[in-house]
Amino acid sequence: MDAIAKELHKPARRNYPRRNVTLKGINDLYQADLVEMIPYAKTNKSFKYILTMLNCFTKFAFAVPIKNKSGVEVARALEPILAKNKMKNFQTDQGKEFFNSHVKKLMEKYKVNHYHSFSDLKASIVERLNRTLKERMWRTFTARGSYEWLSILPGIVKDYNNSIHRTTGMKPKEVRKKHVKFILERITGKNKRINPQFKVGDSVRISKYKRVFKKGYLPNWTNEVFTVYAIRPTRPVTYTLQDHLGEVLKGGFYQEELLKSKTGNVYLVEKVLKRKGNKVLVRWQGFNKNHDSWVDKKVLADAKG
Q: Which residues form the Integrase catalytic domain (predicted)?
């Protein structure tokens, strides 16, 4: 059992090379996120969040103050942007603020394909926008000695859209269809291929990346062991996984999100639920009641011994 505990607590990486987002044109993909501003609501007319959105090709940014993250409020903030921009794809995280009946209805109205990222990290391009906006807001906060952001946000976004972006080499406000070829040449084919670290059939655990507020002593990796089902020829390489029931997991996983398991399909028992003759019904650590199962008493005794 010590071997399992050692695996579960191995350090997990967060920062590593990821795939470039594949873009096909000006309105191909938009990403959105929410920036939390709750501590400063009283100074900003009860607005607690900023809905940020980015045209991933042109890097043109939008930022809309909202008072809560209900589906109604988020849909209300999104509609003016969707009405003026003929986007094809819309990517967000899996939060209920984006995946709800109100936003779904909006996506259907404007015929937009809304999907989420399977990675533990959010939509990466709009997150970089968030960092830039917050850096500029906090710089102003320091200079003014106030956390009032409602009045300064429009100017910050305007400056961002009128500044040359290092990825495209252009100001977001000035990108047009005639610039598509030039920009595509700048942003494609830059990721270096990395040789696969795992083979099909390998047993692996998945990183349970902890955000900063999570306890550092909690396990870093899943209790459940998965099997590498396929290797994707992406840059960098990613993997498709299969669970112990034979179901293929959605999305791909980077090498840094996986840990090769030396213990295989050996699991820790959370508690014994029932006893019947030579059998015991157990709940496995890290699994819900759907995975409760009957095992021989001897198996548990051998594991302890």
A: 13-180
